[in-house]
Amino acid sequence: MARQSDDHAVLHRLMQQYEAAPDDEARGRIVADLAQRALRHAFAEETVLFPAYRQHLPGHGDELTAHVEGEHQQINDLLEELQDADPAAAGYDDRVRRVFTLIDSDAREEEDVMLPRLQSVVDDEELRTIGDAWEAARATAPTRPHPRVPRRPPGNALAALPLAVSDRIKDGLDRLPRGARRVSSAAVLALAACGGAAVAAGVRRRRRRSVRAPRFGLRR
Ligand SMILES: [Fe+2]
Ligand SMILES: [Fe+2]
């Protein structure tokens, strides 16, 4: 599961960049980048990796994944508080550091315990299948915190499609100049509903293609 470790390394580098950031604007930018990467990563784990772990390790899979899902929930809660916060505000830095601590703990539990155990009970072909599914889930995951969405399938996956689309619309709006952002929330919701259907169709098409296409291997 090299993709998991690569993603953890990227998150760790962003934490180091935060510590060396020259000003509040840079810190805010780094936290925004880290947030969307961490949330997509965690969503893919909750949707693909943890169910596979529970399926293959029924003896202790539920306890460990419930613990890590609890950490993901705390990360979602904190990132929701941070997403519109001013990096210069009191308490911002404390919240960011709590997120870092949770991500570090999460990565250690996954890399040191969960993944080695999973690798010991499934063959390479199954690992590649899990890795491919994890990558597909990450590619279509929501990019913003949604702490009130369930952390387990099918609830998280059902909520994810429209949220992923509306998040990407908001991400696009955030990149526009301020004066060009006047899109009504009704229009965003309508686009999200249409986009959700389109994403669902895309996922179905990708699934059909994946039967014929060669696997795309262990890469980020
Ligand atoms: Fe995680
Ligand atoms: Fe992880």
Describe the structure concisely for a colleague:
The chain is built from 7 helices and no strands.
Walkthrough of the structure:
The chain is an all-alpha fold and 220 residues long. The chain has one domain. Helix content is 77%, strand content 0%. The protein contains seven helices and no strands. The chain has helices spanning 2-20, 24-56, 61-82, 92-121, 124-139, 155-175, 185-212. The longest helix has 33 residues, at 24-56. The protein is globular and about 50 Å long. Mean pLDDT is 82; it is low at 183-189 and 194-220. One fe (ii) ion is lined by residues 42, 45, 68, 72, 106, 110.
Mean pLDDT: 82
Number of helices: 7
Share in helix: over 70%
Describe the biggest sheet?
none
Per DSSP E runs of 2 or more residues, the count of β-strands stands at 0
Q: What is the H/E order?
A: HHHHHHH
> What quaternary form is this?
single chain
Write down the overall geometry.
globular
> What fraction of residues sit in β-strands?
under 5%
Ligands bound, unique: fe (ii) ion
Low-confidence stretches: 183-189, 194-220
Q: How many discrete structural domains?
A: 1
Terminal CA distance reads 10 Å
Q: Helices and strands: which structural class?
A: mainly alpha
Q: Compute the gyration radius: what is it?
A: 18 Å
Organism: Jiangella ureilytica
Keywords: Membrane, Transmembrane, Transmembrane helix
Transmembrane segments: 183-203
Domain Hemerythrin-like: 6-118
Secondary-structure blueprint:
Blueprint: H1 2-20, H2 24-56, H3 61-82, H4 92-121, H5 124-139, H6 155-175, H7 185-212
Helix pairs in contact: 1-2, 1-4, 2-3, 2-4, 2-5, 3-4, 6-7
One fe (ii) ion is lined by residues 4, 8, 41, 45, 106-107, 110.
Organism: Jiangella ureilytica
Protein name: Hemerythrin domain-containing protein
Domain Hemerythrin-like: 6-118
